[in-house]
From TrEMBL, chains A, B:
Gene Ontology MF term list: iron-sulfur cluster binding
Residue ranges that the Swiss-Prot or TrEMBL entry lists as coiled coil: none
Organism encoding this protein: Desulfofundulus australicus DSM 11792
Protein name: Uncharacterized 2Fe-2 and 4Fe-4S clusters-containing protein, contains DUF4445 domain
Any Pfam family: Fer2
Gene3D superfamilies xref list: 3.10.20.30, Domain of unknown function (DUF4445)
Matching CDD domains: fer2
């Protein structure tokens, strides 16, 4: 029976089934770095770490394991072990912060993956007999004979490193071997193999989202995200490339932190799903081109300066162990091919999952981030470009900007000519700052209310506009200090508006140049796909109002969430989808905006806000 | 024009072409460890090391390089540089021992390879343009585009380690890339690629023979051999396995010396052919099962004790660099699959090159060595076994035995009831001892002359038979000390005869058990293939006389030389041959003689010599 469980303090509601443990129910959460509740013992009731508190509603009666690990006092206060307590009805459950690795809200679930599982790896259970003079066959020989006789597989190889890791005289039992192409990549003895799993990763400059997927059913067993640990070496991509270029040691370090991060992410996902890494037999990584290169330690000098070319745009297959990923011994990590220096495998994955490559008519696709990748598809022709839209929509470079975490203003409604203002914050907390969608709403609302003019200038005579004494910058007060969560006024200022103008102008100019190059106008667009975390949360009316998105009827828009993550999962699950992704990467035309004088002109025009209709 | 060149002191004749240098002509020699004349500078006339002496006939007049490096005195004595002197007609040329790595005679050329080159690697020359804003493509991107557009190759990968070894902005020029399957394994810039080469290796316990092959024409450019450096850890296979089993460090060491040896062999072959290792793009290694395992560092515990099973019998493909072989960066070493613990990839290669797998009627194939592998083929059915024939035929365990090197008695003719004896030695030198073919002839001749009876006992009353005073062992004097090259009588003694009885009994019993198992008799055999160095040099009449080979008309026998080496070259050159080798490995039935009581009985019977007919 389906019931709703609300997790505190995030206030996240998930649909769970009665009979599930709380840990299992928590896997439905999509928004925590740890990918749910951390259970170091794998949910076996051994470590007592997955301590949660029942706030409202009911759970199964506590058991002996919980009594032993929590004690009577904690039980009486409502504490439970998430791996033992069973969902019996609706409940509100508090997860103490210490068992969550972090609290940043990430967009991990998009439109959902819909693909027939057809994974690149196949498992076979091979019965083994003891080796004897009458049956003089070693373990691998028995595997060879069995696969040839029963499955017609005669063209096999074994990962050379795996050969010696298998006991030659294993004796009676079973070995589960995994075949990828013609290579045997995994061997698990005596029923310890559970189900074949895969790891899909959307590798962004800021966020790294991971999905642990059941390769047989296609089900996502756990999702999680981490901040890209390379942030320590620069928020922007160019700083990180520059760091890597300082020397071998620096490159090792910046690649190493990312590899370590991926390793932890995989570990946490396995923990959350209660599985072991040896069952994870394939990884797919879709990332922007710079992250792709920095992960693989490819040459990046040419990526850091014009014309910003990738070292290569072929798919890369590398043993996962060579990236430090501890999964099945011979598992392969597949890196989705990039298109250009600023159009990466994540863009390819986005196109795949949103179906842009096979859409009819004219489709515009935007994956909005620090760099915004835009694709214009007419029938089967695709042309992409990338424009530097900056980090304003992630809350950076905004005076009181913040990421989309608790306390961030995420929705703004301007009324009464700007004299009144309504807003929502994430988690319903007192406003501590403003995130991308909030800034967008605020600018659009203030523009429509006339508080901002078409050049983006704040009306200094407006009653809520003032000059910040120290900074001589005009600002509009969104939330006065007495109502805020930060003991100071939450404002939006003239510079913030300029940042938004720069960002929206880049996106709009990119779109227009693509259209011009293709001989089309905005009116010809049949469908607009808006992808990415910010793209999913933004209010379309606001984005249209400031001229970031084309002025089309709302029904032509589709906000698809983390389409790159969805695409990565499709590529993980299906060989057909993988082929298709490679075709997409080859087929996309790339427009280098830096090489086009008309881009600069259009960009300058687009700094203005459009006429109010 | 073809002329004959005789090389001293080996007395080897090769067919050469006028216009070739002496070094080039020497590559036709097959019998030296160094694979010809060692030329450290690569035959460029820089080092002066390849000093040879013209003994008879003529060469081109000496040039300035020779004058500079040899001086007038040496030139006047007939010394020349082998890299400078040109063949102009027949000649006899002396090669000083110091420029030959060793002097052991190895059987390297067999029946000769006859196979249509169809190598697993293909080269493509890709024209490159400078990367610019108008042409924003890196080197790999240009390769990708070129191969897709001009060769329809769209499913490529690059060896991950190779990606970063290529300059991303190579600029104008050409890059030659090599594709293996769907993987790019090599990239050579600006015409430095010469021709694609391959390395074939016949990896024996005692001898390692290497062939450097032109993958386009199939020509063997250089051949060479080394003693297996593992001999230092035991002449026999079991001692080496035992050493490897002592611990990780020991295994590293014994695998390491072999890998190092292969590396030196490759290096010497490249030197001899005047080529660079980066052009060597594939290696094929056919070895006995123990050598195969010890090279790859596979588990060997199970190989050292009954039932002696290999860790695996699938083909192994490993990056050559992981075996320490410095060839093209991404080159693969392919190890021919084994059949059983004592039936290795060399046996498979032997069957392939001698065509046993597709012969009509009944064919018996023997590769005689310390272990003798025997295959019995009836139409397409093949059954193999291995028997421990011991090292007697390599001169070991024979009182005055020696390898087939200069001074070894290699042919013996017994006349006048054993009172007279004629013999030949290798190189025509005074007799220093006796090698395998000589021992075989001597035993056969003495048996036919009645000096040895059917039980192998020497007739103590024979005038040339005496008792060695110190050792109380009957012996027959082959060469008295005054005529020998060793200041002592060269003899054959009762123990030597026993060794030959043990060896021949093992081979004969193996053959008979195979026949019995297949419901055949010796008379049903249509063809007998005798392979291996000893097998090629032995006198068939002698082998038949002592009962080692079946008593069949001589025209049914074929001595095919180093058929394993030939097979290795075929597998290197042709994907079809490779497939066929894998089929052979799968199809061969294996008879474990140790599991068959009838083998012991037959063996005991076969210790006797057959009736003289």
């Amino acid at each position: 029976m389906g019931v709703t469980i609300e997790f505190e303090p995030a206030g996240l509601r998930v649909e769970a089934e009665t009979g599930q443990t709380v840990i299992q129910a928590a896997r439905g959460m999509f928004s925590f770095e740890s990918g749910g509740i951390s259970a170091p013992c794998g949910g076996k009731g051994l470590c007592g770490r997955c301590r949660v508190r029942l706030v409202e509603g009911e759970l199964s009666p506590s058991n002996d394991t919980e009594l032993k690990l929590l004690g009577e006092k904690e039980l009486s206060e409502g504490y439970r072990l998430a791996c033992q307590a069973i969902i019996t009805g609706p409940a509100k459950i508090e997860i103490p912060p210490e068992i969550l690795a972090g609290r940043q809200k990430l967009q991990l679930e998009g439109t959902g993956v819909s693909v027939l599982p057809e994974p690149p790896v196949s498992r076979y259970n091979v019965p083994l007999e003891p080796t004897s003079l009458d049956y003089p066959h070693s373990t691998w020989q028995q595997v060879e004979l069995f696969l040839a006789r029963n499955h017609g597989l005669t063209d096999l190889r074994v990962d050379p490193g795996l050969i010696g890791r298998v006991e030659p005289l294993a004796g009676e039992g079973t070995v589960t071997v995994t075949v990828r192409g013609s290579e045997i990549i995994n061997a698990i003895f005596n029923g310890r193999a559970r189900k074949p799993l895969g790891l899909a990763v959307d590798l962004g400059s800021t966020k790294v989202a991971g999905y642990l997927v059941d390769l047989e059913t296609g089900a996502t067993l756990a999702t999680g995200g981490i901040l890209n640990p390379q942030i320590a070496y620069g928020e922007d991509v160019i700083s990180r490339l520059a760091y890597a270029l300082e020397g071998e040691e620096q490159y090792d370090r910046i690649a190493g932190v990312l590899r370590d991060g991926l390793g932890r992410l995989l570990h946490d996902l396995c923990d959350a799903a209660g599985v072991v890494p040896q069952d994870v037999e394939e990884a797919v990584i879709a990332g922007n081109t710079a992250m792709h290169h920095l992960l693989l330690k490819l040459p990046v000098g040419q990526l850091a300066r014009s014309p910003y070319v990738p070292a290569l745009t072929l798919p890369v297959e590398v043993k996962a162990r060579d990236l430090g990923l501890q999964m099945a011994f011979g598992a392969v990590a597949y890196l989705v091919p990039a298109v250009a220096g600023f159009v990466g495998g994540d863009h390819v994955a986005m196109i795949l999952s949103s179906g842009i490559h096979e859409s009819q008519g004219v489709t515009l696709g935007l994956d909005i981030g620090t760099n915004t990748e835009i694709v214009l598809a007419r029938d089967k022709e695709m042309l992409s470009c990338s424009c530097a839209s900056g980090p304003a929509f992630e809350g950076a470079h905004i005076y009181q900007g913040m990421r989309a975490v608790d306390g961030a203003i995420s929705r703004v409604e301007v009324a009464d000519g700007g004299r009144e203002l309504f807003y929502e914050t994430i988690g319903g907390r007192p406003a501590a700052g403003i995130c991308g969608s909030g800034v967008l709403d605020a600018v659009a609302g203030l523009y429509r209310a006339g508080v901002i003019n078409y050049n983006g200038r704040l009306d200094a005579s407006h009653p809520r506009v003032r000059f910040n004494e120290g900074r001589k910058v005009a600002e509009y007060v969104l939330v006065p200090a007495e109502k805020s969560g930060s003991d100071r006024d939450v404002v939006i200022n003239q510079k913030d508006i300029s940042e938004i103008q720069l960002a929206k102008a880049a996106i709009a100019a990119g779109t227009k140049v693509l259209l011009a190059k293709t001989g089309l106008t905005e009116r010809d667009i049949d469908k607009v796909i808006v992808a990415g975390a910010f793209g999913t949360h933004l209010r379309l009316e606001s984005a249209i109002a400031i001229g970031m998105l084309p002025p089309l009827p709302l029904e032509r828009f589709q906000q698809v969430g983390n389409a790159a993550g969805d695409g990565a999962r499709m590529i993980l699950l299906s060989k057909t989808a993988r082929k298709r992704a490679e075709e997409i990467a080859r087929r996309i035309g790339y427009l280098e905006l830096a090489a086009m004088p008309e881009f600069s002109n259009t960009f300058l025009q687009e700094l203005r806000f459009p006429e109010i209709t």
